[in-house]
Amino acid sequence: MEDPQRNTGEGSEERLPRQEERDRAPIAVKIVVAGGFGVGKTTFVGSVSEIEPLTTEAVMTQASEDTDDLTATPDKTTTTVAMDFGRITLESDLVLYLFGTPGQRRFWFMWDDLVRGAIGAVVMADTRRLEDCFPALDYFESCGLPYVVAVNHFEGTEYYEPEDVREALSVPAQVPVLVMDARKRDTVVDSLTALVGHALDLTPA
């Protein structure tokens, strides 16, 4: 009896592996980009997004002077009040959707909604004020979400080795710590690739 799964009629074409790969639906995953105020989250998302990134930047006013410390970022005039959103295709079948969190404490109530469904998080750090990323580290540790630490190295600041930052932040040995520049696409991609790999390593077989 003829196998009903095979089409051997005249004019039929055997599908090649590459054709099957092209027809395969891409895997879409959600990633959160977190960290302290003014650490570069909006820049991080914007530097790799293949679509026009969605930002919710608002002009800072005198009303925020008592809550937003601008000592390390004196030229900052806007702040994220809801989230940043972007998309990047790492491979033909892997699409990352990036959600940047607001850094100020008064907007932390939105984090639970932004994190829901994410496979992991990139926690950005500024070595001039490492303490600003402690709340994000504590949050992801407490909820068990995989994360990596991406040190945004600003021009004119002292360079620190990843292991020195790990020790200063008391980050577990299995968590990747990278030094990057949020303005440079290749280093941002490296951070995202490290997170995806780390999340996969922690996924039960």
Give a structural overview.
The chain is an alpha/beta fold. It has a single domain (about 30-200), classed as Rossmann fold. About 25% of the residues lie in helices and about 20% in strands. The chain has 6 helices and 8 strands. It has helices spanning about 15-25, 40-50, 110-115, 135-145, 160-170, 185-200, and strands at about 25-35, 55-60, 80, 85-90, 95-100, 120-125, 145-150, 175-180. The strands form 2 sheets. Strands 4-5-1-6-7-8 form a 6-stranded mixed β-sheet, sandwiched between helices. A two-stranded antiparallel sheet has the order 2-3. A hairpin with a 2-residue loop joins β4 (about 85-90) and β5 (about 95-100). It is globular. The two termini are about 40 Å apart.
Nutshell version of this structure?
Residues 1-10 have a biased composition (Polar residues). The protein is an alpha/beta fold and 205 residues long.
The level 1 CATH classification is: Alpha Beta
From the alpha carbons, calculate the radius of gyration and give it in angstroms. Answer: 21 Å
Mean pLDDT across all residues, rounded? 82
CATH superfamily descriptor: P-loop containing nucleotide triphosphate hydrolases
> Given the structure, what is the number of helices?
6
Largest sheet, described in full?
A: 6 strands, mixed
Anisotropy-based shape: globular
Strand content: 15-25%
CATH A-level architecture: 3-Layer(aba) Sandwich
Query: For the terminal residues, how far apart are their CA atoms?
Result: 39 Å
Number of strands: 8
Number of domains: 1
Q: Give, in spatial order, the strands making up the sheet with the most strands.
A: 4-5-1-6-7-8
The proportion of residues forming helix, as a percent range, comes to 25-40%
Could you please say which CATH topology applies here? Rossmann fold
